[in-house]
Design brief:
By secondary structure, this protein is α/β, with parallel strands linked by helices. It folds into 2 domains: about 1-150 and about 250-325, 3-Layer(aba) Sandwich (Rossmann fold); about 155-250, no CATH class. The protein has helices spanning about 95-110, 125-135, 150-160, 165, 170-175, 185-195, 200-215, 230-245, 255-260, 285-290, 310-325; strands spanning about 1-5, 20-25, 30-40, 45-50, 70-75, 115-120, 140-145, 270-275, 295-300. Strand 8, helix 10 and strand 9 (about 295-300) form a beta-alpha-beta unit. Helix 5 (about 170-175) runs antiparallel to helix 7 (about 200-215). The chain is globular. The two termini are about 15 Å apart. The model has no long low-confidence stretch (mean pLDDT about 95).
Length: about 325
Amino acid sequence: MAFTAPETARRDLYPEIEPFAFGWMETGDGNRIYYEECGNPQGLPVVVLHGGPGGAVNPGMRRYFDPAKYRVVLFDQRGCGQSTPNAAQTDLSDNTTWTLIEDIERLRERCGIDKWAVFGGSWGSTLSLAYAITHPERCTAPLLRGIFLLRKPELRWFYQEGASMLYPDAWERFVEPIPEAERGDLMAAYYKRLTGPDLEERRRCAVAWSSWEGETVSVEGPGARPDKFADPDFAVAFARIECWYFVNGGFFPEENWILNNIRRIRHIPGWIAQGRFDVVTPMTSAWDLHRAWPEARLDVIPDAGHASSEPGIIDSLVRATDWAASL
């Protein structure tokens, strides 16, 4: 069912909460994955998959869930956040969609969980869908926001031409580090610099790449950019991992892999929250997903962009988790 969320009586986040457990999980290939658990140890399990790829979990992500009803597991995907080694310097060859899915399964087993809901926005929606399709028997409900299917038109829209027309001021800052002769393929130009030997150029380009996303996530525009996107220590890992995934097509075996395999999860309840004015992951992907998976509930927020912190997105996601807890 597709519908538009009401603009009144919106839900807000649950109160702040601290983890009841945290630690690092060895992957067996040199990575250590930071994870934490909060809420009710006996509650409905859910795993939170952050965006990027290359982002990190933060305390606000714990607050979309009723702490009396949920056992919330959050982790920093390999290469970022408190997981080690950090992608600012390390080789990225073992960082793919499929190694992340292996990490999710390894974490599920470590936590002694049989099945769990998956909660993710932006790249987190991509990874949630890929995980659910690969392990449908382990997924009770995908709860998704800002759908990103990692297809070429989506990447071209945001990194070559499309979003540039809506944010020409931010776009000017994004392309500034790249010589005009190389601007015909900006992802390739950035990839060369983000993985190149010049560390100062790497930092400068990482901040420009990261800031472009930060300046476009909210309907409020560049002035609402979260501070972390301009922090070089965050930006280098974030930009390197994102660009690595994007130039490699998310490591999917085919362009439309998610939609081509969505039949594997059509029997599982799902929720899709999508901002009408999302510039980072435009609504066409959420609509395509809904058309392929009509059983999932599509919630279009009429006054929201991409950011999970926007009031309409918060409202939809909190209602989604309450709904999933009642299934």
